[in-house]
Design goal:
binds alpha-L-arabinofuranose, 8-stranded parallel barrel, 26 strands, 2 domains, TIM Barrel, alpha/beta, 10-stranded mixed beta sheet, Immunoglobulin-like, 9 helices
Length: 491
């Protein structure tokens, strides 16, 4: 019998809500059509933002949103996206499909979106093709409350109050699309640029994020921590889950059981990456002041047939939900170092929460996985020990169960469990130390590995109440079906 021992009185640190953050780039139909349709659209909107999408994001308590890129950020000049829309400069989105960007969604629109969702803003600045002055002025424009050229310009453009910028990223992927720099060169650039990200608001300090490594580039982390560690609050890392190789990513829906297990194995590799990057960070920052910011993660498959290859539009199945749940459990378990994570991306791009087609929208299995994790936000991670053996299927070995547990301020213990096996349920005995379970409620997401939602059938995969548990001796006996994610709230 599998066993989970949870020490309800042994807390291990705060699970920052921002671990459940998201990423929205000017890429394909993420911004345009996905969240922003403009005030004149027939699609119900508030100040141009789709009401259906905003409501769905409110429902999962989306805590923080990264914008405007990605690769787009290092070609984005923020002044092109302010002022009257008819006079805003157009540009070519060279990274993503070569389409014309009309800049109708800019700084004011982004903060309006965050206001409607009720989330914090994570802005990524342009290092690759921008200047220190441009970045400095953007920060002044967004956050300075007094009289200054940029604050006055903001007022002239209709926004009297300064906004709160929770996080500011100094460039994106400088080792690639953000300028093809070496770690040493970027570390110097980071030191210079971050100097001019002024903290204008003592009540809303900006958390500065240095652009981090591509997956397992540990040298990058070493150099950044050594040369610039004391000047940053966070250091990022990007890691995408692909089944086999970048050349053989395969379809988001037509895949085999071997592809499924390979994808999950690769998703779990993120834990090794976090451990190894954290170990390097520990050498320079043993107090764990600097956060590891996983600001791009998620699945990357072939684009859906017939769609623009530059738009990265992919469907989303139970396999994606499993990747999300496994990753979120890993982030929870490493909340001492992981302060924020941003899945790529919000709508219509890569591992999206939401897909839209004209006026229609659907929530993906990944969306429902996030919903199951919602109640961990801002809780204390609990010390927990899972005794469960590994299993091997299609030649791939995986843990037969995975979990994280947290304590909410009201005393409720929240547990999220994942059973990755496609053809085997699991029995689990949960023993609670320092607490007796008086009542339990649960929700589950389960289905075939390729189960997904379509615009004609948007509710095929969704969370339903979970009843596969029984109270026993102050603890619990749980039965998890194959390919399932379960959230338990234990009171
Ligand atoms: O999320 C898509 C792209 O992947 C981002 O623009 C870039 O940062 C990464 O390579």
């Amino acid at each position: 019998m599998n066993k989970l021992i949870i020490h309800a009185e042994l807390t291990k640190g705060r699970i920052c809500k921002d671990i459940q953050g998201q990423f929205s780039e000017h890429l394909g139909r993420c911004i345009y059509g996905g969240v922003y349709v403009g005030e004149q659209s027939d699609i119900p909107n508030e100040n141009g933002m789709r009401k259906d999408v905003v409501q769905a994001l409110r429902d999962i308590h989306l805590p923080v949103l990264r914008w405007p890129g990605g690769c787009f950020a290092d070609e984005y000049h923020w002044k092109d996206g302010i002022g009257p829309k008819e006079t805003r400069k157009k540009m070519v989105n060279t990274h993503w499909g070569g389409v014309t960007e009309d800049n109708s969604f800019g700084t004011h629109e982004f903060f309006e979106l965050c206001r409607q969702i009720g989330c914090d803003a994570y802005i990524t600045g342009n290092v690759g093709s921008g200047t220190v002055q441009e970045m400095n002025e953007w920060v002044e424009y967004m956050t300075f409350e007094g009289v200054s050229p940029m604050a006055d310009l903001r007022r002239q453009n209709g926004h009297a109050d300064a906004w709160k910028v929770a996080y500011f990223g100094v460039g994106n992927e400088p080792w690639g699309c953000g300028g093809n720099m070496t770690a040493e060169y970027y570390a110097n650039e980071y030191r210079r640029y971050q100097t001019y990200i002024r903290q204008y608001r003592p009540d809303a300090r900006i958390y500065k994020v240095a652009a981090g490594s591509n997956g397992s580039d540990f040298h990058w982390t070493e150099v950044l921590m050594k040369n610039a560690g004391r000047m940053m609050d966070g250091l990022s890392m990007h890691y995408y889950t692909i089944p086999h190789s970048w050349e053989k990513k395969g379809s988001a829906l037509n895949f085999t059981a071997a592809d499924y297990y390979e994808t999950l194995k690769n998703a779990l590799y993120i834990e090794q990456l976090i451990r190894r990057h954290s170990a390097i960070m520990d050498q320079y920052d043993p107090e764990k002041r600097v956060g590891l910011i996983v600001d791009e993660w998620g699945t990357w498959f072939d684009v859906e047939e017939g769609t623009n290859p530059g738009f990265l539009y992919q469907q989303n199945s139970m396999r994606d939900a499993m990747v999300a749940a496994l990753s979120l459990n890993v982030f929870n378990q490493h909340c001492d170092r992981v302060h924020m994570a941003n899945i790529a991306q919000l709508v219509n791009v890569l591992q999206a929460m939401i897909l839209t087609e004209g006026p229609r929208m659907l929530c993906t299995p990944t969306y429902y996985a996030f919903r199951l994790f919602r109640d961990h936000q801002e809780n204390q991670l609990l010390d927990s020990h899972l005794i469960a053996s590994d299993f091997t299927a299609e030649g791939i070995t995986l843990p037969s169960l995975q979990e994280s547990s947290s304590l909410a301020p009201d005393g409720t213990v929240h547990v999220t469990l994942v059973n990755p096996a496609l053809d085997q349920g699991q029995e689990l005995e949960i023993s609670l130390q320092g607490m007796r379970a008086a009542s339990v409620s649960g929700e589950i997401l389960t289905g075939e590995m390729d189960a997904h939602n379509t615009f004609d059938c948007p509710d095929a995969v969704k969370n339903v109440p979970f009843t596969g548990f029984a109270l026993a001796d102050g603890g619990l006996k749980v039965t998890l079906p194959a390919c399932s994610i379960v959230h338990l709230a234990i009171h």
